[in-house]
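INTERNAL TRANSFER SHEET
From: sequence group
To: structure group
Subject: Essential sporulation protein

Please process the attached sequence and return the structure record in the designated field. Keep the field labels unchanged so the import script can parse them.
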Amino acid sequence: MVKISDLRAREVVNVVDGRRLGLIKDIEVDMEEGKITAIILPGDGGGRFLGFFAKDEEIVVPWEKIRKIGADVILVEVSTFTDPRHEQRIKY
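Return from structure group:
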């Protein structure tokens, strides 16, 4: 079993291109199911990220896109950009 605090300390890396996406900022939980539905990462803070994100936007990675949770890193498979969930959050 892994604690949320342990997950937040692990770097998130995209296996498609090897990019470091950062540390988990928050999580989304389906309260009815009692399951994590997505991890939320901060934007890069440098203005643009992967050509799509402004500096204050969040990156929402659905739980299904997580490929492996290791001791030091979380590997995700994010290959394309899809519709924004709302103004400040981008969902893969």
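Handover comment: The beta strands are 11-14, 20-23, 26-30, 35-42, 58-62, 66-69, 73-76, 84-86, 89-91. The longest helix spans residues 4-8.
Transfer complete.
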